[in-house]
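User: I'm new to structure prediction. If I give you an amino acid sequence, what do you actually give back? Let's try with this one:
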Amino acid sequence: MANLRLTGVKDGTHLVLVDAEGAEYTLPIDDNLRASLRRGRAERPAGATESVTPREIQQMLRAGATVDEVAELSGLSPEHVERFEGPVTSERVWVVQQAMAIPVGRHPDSPVLGDLALDRLATRRVAPDSLEWDAVRSGSGPWTLLLSFPVEGRQLRASWEVDVQSRSLHAIDDESRWLSETDADSPRGRRGLAGVVNAFPSRAEREPAGPVAPRVPAAEDTGTSENDPAGGTDAL
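Assistant: Good question. You get back a string of structure tokens that encode the predicted 3D arrangement of the chain. For your 236 residues, that looks like this:
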């Protein structure tokens, strides 16, 4: 029997597991799994040592799992998991802000992703304040930027693979390709920025007139102890 290691949560519906050779597996988070975890928690002897490390808690939160989901999957209390939530949330927000500021196109005056997406969605009458941006990462894989938005009563989502260090984006579904396409021969590419207001700060607001402070990347995960959850998160 192969030993599998938990590395994250995919879309909040599957656990992501890897074996000793790096092969990846997914396990649905269903009622059977939840029932098994509840039984295991009830059977745990009083004073038993927790087997889930702070790094693993951070990985699950970074992959998009909620505090309650991590608590249920790990057998830990929600209060314990919450101690690790803040640094990971800050890291995910930072990745979203960096990704939204990446220029889309080869020209010096190319619009940034956040502004371009707002312009495209304005043509579908999507209100700026209805957009929900997020960033998740499974294990040591790349960051995935997510944008959820309502269209005609349906909630749609666009996804990009993001490399923050190289400031590059790769659209991975039809919605993200439509939102970030810049082909000059395409009707979509010929739309200019419509001056819509971003739910996040605009590029002008993100770039102060004075010297720009150096970018501070997410802190390295240095084996944070359970008593020091804010000590850092895994490196980008």
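You can read the tokens as a compact description of the fold. Here is one thing that stands out. Residues 85-100 form the longest helix (16 residues).
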